[in-house]
Amino acid sequence: MDFLNAAKGIQNELISIRRDFHMNPELDFDLNRTVEKIKCFLDKEGIEYFETSRNGICGIIKGNGSKTIGIRADMDALPMDEKRECDYSSKIKGRMHACGHDAHTTVLLGTAKILNSMKDKLKGNVKLFFEPAEETTGGAIHMIEEGVLDNPKVDAVIGLHVEPNIKCGKIGIKRGVVNAASNPFNIKIKGKGGHGAHPHSTIDPIVISANVITAIQSIVSREIPPTDPAVITIGSIHGGTTQNIIPDEVEISGIIRTMTLEHREYVKKRIVELTKGICESMRGGCEINIQESYPCLYNNDDVVDILKKSGDEILGEENIVILEKPTMGVESFAYFSIERPSAFYYLGTGNKEKDTEYPLHSSYFDVDEDSIINGVIVNCKTVINFLNN
C-alpha cells in the first residue's frame, strides 16, 4: 500500500479529530469524553477493543499470523491555561494539551484506520494502546497488569512523542536508554521548637535541613561517575511561621532521576543513609518516604533497526535524526519497554513559520499538523516491516 497517499486521504479528518481533542482537554484518568470519541471512531471502523485501566482502551486488528505488535498513544492533558489564541484553543480553563497527547492519540487513530483497511494483508496482529494518566502516575503499568500484552501475546511495542526541537518532516531515534527513571521523595526533619533567642534549648530542624540538602547534592557530584547522568532536585522546603520561632519540623520534597537501575538503587540508599546520619548527629530525627515511579525507558536494538529502516524508506534517510544523548525527563512508555522489546521515537513538529517551536509544557505549545501524517506513515511502515518482512 502507498501509505503516504493513504494518509493524505484522511489528513483533514485527522486534523479535525486532533483539534477536537485539543479544544476539549481532560486530565489524568478522567478522560470520559476523549474515550467516547475514540470508541466511536473504533466502532465506525469496525475495530475490536476493550476498556482497561480506568479509561484506558486496548484495540486489536487481527491479521493472518501469530506475531503481534503494539502501538501506544497517551491521551491526557496538563493542568494549565493555554495562552495561544487560535481557532482550536482549549475551551476549558486550567486545562491544555501542552505535551501533544492530542496529536499522539490522533496519530494512533489514523494508523489504526489505514492498517485495519488492509488487515487481510497483515501477517500478524496489531494492538492499539490508548493510555490514560501519562502525566501523573501512568496508566501503562495498570494496563499491563490487566493483560494488554497477552491474548495474543505482544512481541514488540512502538510509541512516539512529538518534539518541537526536531523539524516537521523528520523523526528522531535514540538507541539504548532514552528516558530517565524517577523517584519522588519526601523527608520530614524532626527537631524541637522554641524561641529564636534561645537556640541552645532547641533542636533546629531548619539548620539540620540545610545540612541534609547540601549533603544530598554531593551524591551526584561526588559518588556517581561524572560520565553518567543523574539529578537530584529539591523542589520544596517548608518549615516555620515567623522570624523568631524555631519550628518543630521541616518538610522537604524532591525527585531523583537516574539512567541505570544500579544508580537508581544506589542514590535511594544514600539519601536514606545521609539523612538519617545527619539528623542523628545533630540530635534530630527524620521520616523518609521515597516513592517508586517511572523506570528507565530502554530502546531495543532489533526493534530500533526495523523502525529506522521504515523511517528511511518512508521519509528518506536524510530525515532521520540520530540522537546521541538521552533525556532526564520521564516517560511511562518505559513500562512497556521493560516488558517487551520496544522502540520509542520522536516525531518532529517544529516549524518556525507556523510558530510551533515552543517547548513542551509551554502555554504557547502547538504542533505543525503536517506532522500527524508523518507519524501515521512511520507507524504503518514499521508494522508492515515487523509483521510481513
Automatic annotation (TrEMBL):
Domain Peptidase M20 dimerisation: 185-276
SUPFAM superfamilies for this protein: Bacterial exopeptidase dimerisation domain (SSF55031), Zn-dependent exopeptidases (SSF53187)
Record CDD domains: M20_Acy1
Pfam families (UniProt xref): M20_dimer, Peptidase_M20
InterPro entries: Amidohydrolase, Bact_exopeptidase_dim_dom, Peptidase_M20, Peptidase_M20_dimer
NCBIfam families: amidohydrolases
PANTHER family reported for this sequence: METALLOPEPTIDASE, PUTATIVE (AFU_ORTHOLOGUE AFUA_6G09600)-RELATED (PTHR11014:SF63), PEPTIDASE M20 FAMILY MEMBER (PTHR11014)
Protein name as catalogued: M20 family metallopeptidase
Origin species: Clostridium brassicae
